[in-house]
Amino acid sequence: MKHVISITCVVFTVSSSLCAEPWKIDINTNLTTALNTYSDNWTGGEAGSFTWATQFLGVAQKQLSPKFNTQTTLKLQFGQTATQDKTTKDWSVPKKSTDLIDGEELLRCTLGGWADPFASVRAISEFVDESDTLLTRYGNPLELTEDIGASHTLRKSPTVDWSSRLGGAMRQVIDRHHLDIATGARKNDVTNDGGVEFDMDLKAINKQKSVTLLSSLRLYEALASSKEDSAGNWRYPHMKWENTLTLTFAKYLMLDVSAYAYYDRDINMNFRLKETLSAGLTYIYSKK
After folding, report:
1. How many domains does the structure of the chain reveal?
2. Phi, psi of 2 (to 5 degrees)
3. DSSP for residue 84
4. What CATH number did the domain enclosing 234 receive?
5. For residue 16, pLDDT beyond 80
6. How far apart are CA 127 and CA 130, in angstroms?
7. What are phi and psi of 74, to 5 degrees?
8. Separation CA 106–CA 111 (nearest Å)
9. How confident is the model at residue 74 (pLDDT cuts 50, 70, 90)?
10. Which tens digits make up the pLDDT trace of 91-114?
């Protein structure tokens, strides 16, 4: 936590003292819904369902001076699904289908060379944690990562922004009010580890701004950990690969195709995959 506070203070101090260029802001938000219902005399055993999901992606970037650049990224996702009982036709309580809070502050030294030094702070959490059936927790679990290393721009153009980062990282995973099955007591479970992290981000958009591809790859390898694990699962690399293709029609209508691949041996020994196809309303704002 001290690392987070220290780096954040440095970023805000530099931001407040240097105002060379205006902020560049990109916002992309959307809302999707789906509903199907059946009459009481419908035969075949079908059941109705209702799904809704919303997503917000905001990026604010500013060149503080010729040698310093700051970028703030915030990604929010939340959605629920309700289903209808085949026999009674009663609707279930909406259950969470997607949930994400992901924010990052990145400070780069733009020296004009092949690679630029950087320092970043990232926080990942959920709006509602329902993993514990006895207690609903909000803003839990919380994963904090402080990263220092070098960044490289693979390609930069009006339609393509492709960059990568490699550095040493410290990570804290905080699980509040964690239930100890052996004692029945609740306490804050905190895991500290350190290692190497690699990030690669791609944003590609056509000239008409009707097709957008977002791809993010994150690899983290812990070299030391405070977690007591006889199986040594923390030694395996963690991977998050997220891809989203968005087609925009008539300015406010969108079709979204997403594919996610996650690997975290602490959760499951196999890859976890998620695919989503959705259509709905979208709003895009860009200030250059």
Report:
1. 1
2. -60, -35
3. B
4. 2.40.230
5. no
6. 10
7. -135, 125
8. 15
9. very high
10. 899 999 999 999 999 999 998 889
